[in-house]
Give the backbone structure.
Amino acid sequence: MWTIHLYSKTRTQNLIITGLLAILGVLALVSLSLGAYQIPFAQLLGVILNGLGIQGVAAESQQVNVLLQIRLPRIVLATLIGGGLGVAGASLQGMFRNPLVEPGLIGVSSGSALFAVIYLVLIAGSTGIWKTMSAFGLPLFAFVGGLIHVAAVYRLSRSQGKTETSTLILAGVAINALAGALIGLTLFYADDAALRSFTFWSLGDLGGASWTKVPTAFLLILIPSLFLFRDCRALNALALGEHEAFHMGVNVKQIKIKLLITTALIVGVGVSLAGMIGFIGLIVPHLIRIGFGADHRLVLPGAFLLGAILMNVADLIARLIVIPAEMPIGVVTALIGAPFFIWLIFNLNKPKR
Amino acid sequence: MLQASRIHFCIQKRPVVDQISLTLQAGEILAVLGPNGAGKSTLFKILSGEISCKHGAVDYNGLPVGNLNSKKLAEVRAVMPQHSAVNFPFSAQEVVELGLFSTQSKNPAKLVEEVMEATNTLHLKNSNFQHLSGGEKQRVQLARVLVQIWEQKPFPRYLLLDEPTSSLDIAQQHGVLSILRQLTHRNIGVLIILHELNLAAQYADRIALLKNGMITSCGTVQEVLQEKTLHEVFDYPIQILQHPHHGGLIVSTSQPSFQKQLIKQA
């Protein structure tokens, strides 16, 4: 009976993952067809079938261009960045043993943003060594900024092996304030063009999506996310406490360093590609836990897929509500996420029984 | 053998563990007793490898604890700390399954079921751990720890427990101690911090009495449980009685003023 139980557990997990994948697939199709430039479903299907080498309904070349050069890379990016934010949020919550942790709240995003702005304003224009590695300069700077901030918050909020929620949030507020001030200082030296692009970018923006950004996202978001999946059992053990995890045979120090670096990389690269997009990393792990339990073997891949789904939904809303203009995607995620955060605070303070 | 020799540990220049040496053999239960602040928990953390200690040595089966990585250490010893909080909605069974981390069990499902059966937690398996009562949580945690060393191994192993019975009722306390007794037949040595002297008298093979970071007395139950020693260690008058039927020792703390005559140990 028990073997059946364990077996059915993995089967349930596979079912959930398959379900989320299917939703993501349907959503991608819907998202391809809708927008300022409507593409009927028949034409959409034609383009896809053509891509597979089958003759379908013919589509105009403009439709093909919109689909393949504008919408598809955008959806791929939204999927990778949203998924990355979901996994990073779930991993950070697991590591901090705190369900309120989120890359934006604890300052990782703003740290990445600060270093990205420093790069854009002070370095990108200069010549020399940075010019030659311009494709990776921005993600690299964003990663370093995120890493410094997450390490700082972690240090500030810990006492005697525990992270207190209140200290953690306060440390995040302090670090965010500092980053905000330094961003302001840097922008003081920026020109008008840089300033305008920053305003949009600070609210999150997928409008600049193109195929040239996809390899970076693939290499520095998807692959690290897959690496995080392998640590799900250690994250489960960490949920009991760091000492307990050590007693059970987890190399706690090594796993923590690994988690910090990997999440900072995922978030930093996400910020460098699409700006600061908040709350995905907070909401998504919660929804998975509420729906399907706390086992990280499901939470991590589930958070990736649900993060991707939520990001695509938010992008679709951002594209559709103010046609022909476009809402910054960060505004949409914040409008969904902030009320959820408030609900979460209410519920965490309720007695457990 | 788990061997600690002359370990010495200071917190803010005050010795909390003062030149303690002790051994734990596989197959025995060693109870560590002492008043609050005697250094029991610090000693416990040093023995488990959680705190590294500059002075003195802790060896597991002849290997220094500092030379064993967390994985190797988890194979020779399991640890149950006093409190473990779980911040996410894990089910009781998922918590118990965490103990599988370092085991290479061929049949994990059977192992988990056996241990949950033994700890009387099987009926809780699908309950949210966070919603369990204090006693139930403690038993689930015990099950999680036992999973780690339940299966037979060709080398001696050790189980360290810090007050595992503090939230349990009388029947559950004896249930837990009986399980520990059975473990000693699996080539496992058990070190247990206890407050209940009668449990120690009934189940332990040896007792170590701790006060002010030092072992004041260590030996068999008969040797250590002396009225004078206990009075000095706990700063409270304690009587040792003999059970009228089976002859085992009973530790009594009733005040002499309420009893006209004390029955002295023969």
Q: What stands out?
A: The CA atoms of residues 83 and 252 of chain B lie 28 Å apart. The two ends of chain B are 35 Å apart (CA to CA). Chain B has one domain: 2-226.
